[in-house]
Write a structure and sequence with these properties.
Radius of gyration: 18 Å
Strand content: under 5%
Order of helices and strands: HHH
Number of helices: 3
Structural class: mainly alpha
Distance between the termini: 60 Å
Helix content: over 70%
Number of strands: 0
Length: 97
């Protein structure tokens, strides 16, 4: 059973690596944010799978912390986008729609 969990962790790690390429070469900020969310979720999955395979219970705490940080990153991204949209509304140099 531990071998199966480690194989699953390796597959998830490959998918996360592909997501990292998307973060580096994403065409838009939204694509990069979604890839960053994939990195957070995939990292949690890898930690939990390896922790279950090796019997290390501390990885659960690390995975939960990683998930919390990914959630905060999403909130910061949305707040930054909302602040930018509010600033664009007050820009007189652009013609009204």
């Amino acid at each position: 059973m531990p071998d199966l969990l480690l194989i699953a962790a390796a597959v998830v790690l490959v998918i996360v690596a592909l997501g990292l390429m998307r973060v580096l070469w994403g065409p838009a900020d939204v694509d990069r944010m979604m890839a960053a969310q994939l990195l957070g979720t995939g990292g949690m999955a890898v930690l939990l799978l390896v922790g279950a395979a090796e019997g290390i219970s501390a990885t659960v705490d690390v995975a939960l912390t990683m998930g919390l940080l990914a959630a905060f990153a999403s909130i910061a991204f949305v707040k930054k986008g909302a602040a930018g949209a509010a600033a664009d509304e007050g820009n007189p140099s652009e013609p009204p729609a």
